[in-house]
Sequence to fold (521 residues):
Amino acid sequence: MTTFSRTLINLGVVCAFALAGTGTKSQTIAPLRVGSASVSTLNYARSNAGYWGLGNLILEPLLVLTKDGKMGPWLAESWTQPNPTTYVYKLRKGVRFSSGNELTAADVAFSLNFYREPGSTNAYNFPATLKSITAVDRYTVQVSLSEPDAAWAVAPAGPQLGIFEKAFYEQHESSFGQPETGVVGTGPWQLSSFNPTSGAELTVNPHYWRGSVPIQSISWKFFSSESSEALAFRAGDLDVAFPSDRRSFAATSGVDLKTAPGVTNQAQFTMNTLVAPWDDVHLRRAVAYALDKPALISAYGGYAQPVNTLIPPTMLLQLGSQEEVDAALASIPDYPHDLGKAKEEMAKSAYPGGVDVTLAVYNTPSYVNVSQAIVPQLAAIGIRAELKVVQDAAWVAEATGDDRKAIHAQFWTNGAVSPDPGGANDSIIGSRNATAGNWNVSNWSSAEVDDLIARGRATTDPAKRLQIYQLLLTKFAENVPFVALFLTDEAVALSSNYSWSSFDSYWNQHGPWALELEIKQ
Fold:
């Protein structure tokens, strides 16, 4: 799913940061110049492209996640869970929107309910167990669930759920988020102009609740391709960019990218179990043995690390120590690159003499490169693959449409939608997601798997959850509806004027990330 138009999507989860007045450099930083793909709207119930880069400088979440993976206060100064199905959030008093109006529980409840409406691009953040989000009084928000759901605890920390001013929305409902209107938030910057064909200009929110803001203005430029963005970087016209095609961007821009090991954007080779030959488990296991992950990482352009499980081990560390996680993963079947074992599995399949197949590939260079590298690896075990390049709109329509047999197999990447180990990749697994409009493109599940998914969310006991996910990952490893290939690194390009010592895989959950930048002397 990752393309240049989604450069700022599919990025992960954690971290708190120090702001002006609480650790940020007191020096005033010159206007910051940022580049990205075009953002068509700031109404993120309609499109969340670019949200975490641009939007979270304007709109802030209730909570953040700290460096050690714990929940931290933000717009909510405290929160409690009086019973397993109720969460209560107490807002800070005196927080003001850039309009000057005070943030209230009515704004929070309205924003969150807006994001969960049917058809919202952010509805996936809200579990089916969520019953209501209500303003109890001026500074108290209550969330009620129909049954316990561990994944909800971290949902309010999602940068895609930034709080906006209810009154402003009601005054501009038909044009909310559009260039002529924009949005109003509590973040350190406010929107002064927005043109989807050229960019956006941000100025300091004079009412920012955390004190002075060192970067006085931000000029955000939109580009039609990463190549043109990289050339602008080389020409000295940009200070910050978040490239998706890292190798090409680095070569064209002449900049050494700052990277951090990824934990949230996973590359997979997915096989549609509804259609032959991918409905044959022995053939799928043969594929798992045949794929050479280091070679595919090289084809992708580097900036990635191999991974073997749907839930990355680093994410499971929320549920146990390194030793406990290692012990849980030790019993899960693994598929190291081994052509001998791959051929043994092919011999057990219904296709011992080989088979002709078609692979779909999203029309973006890194996807095409990896898919082209997969073809000879499959050919080595008798799977003769032809690539079918699919344009973005058609790919989405085929992958998530009513006809769940439209795409047979494909290389793609998918991003975690939650920092919770059970909620992170929930959108691509389970029977309920093997339906029109949803993203289980392998279309594989079972009653036992569905039960494990539900049980993993229904308990908050870390040890029990680790045991449940060990069983869940075992089921996926035994049935191999997809092969987890690698986790893409997070990367940022910085001009010589700036450094970012705290940059890591969770940069977009720092809150307003630009406050982390350090100006060089």
About this structure: Confidence is low (pLDDT under 50) at residues 1-26. Residues 4-259+490-519 form a domain with the D-Maltodextrin-Binding Protein; domain 2 fold (CATH 3.40.190.10). Residues 462-479 form the longest helix (18 residues). The chain has two domains: 4-259+490-519, 265-488.
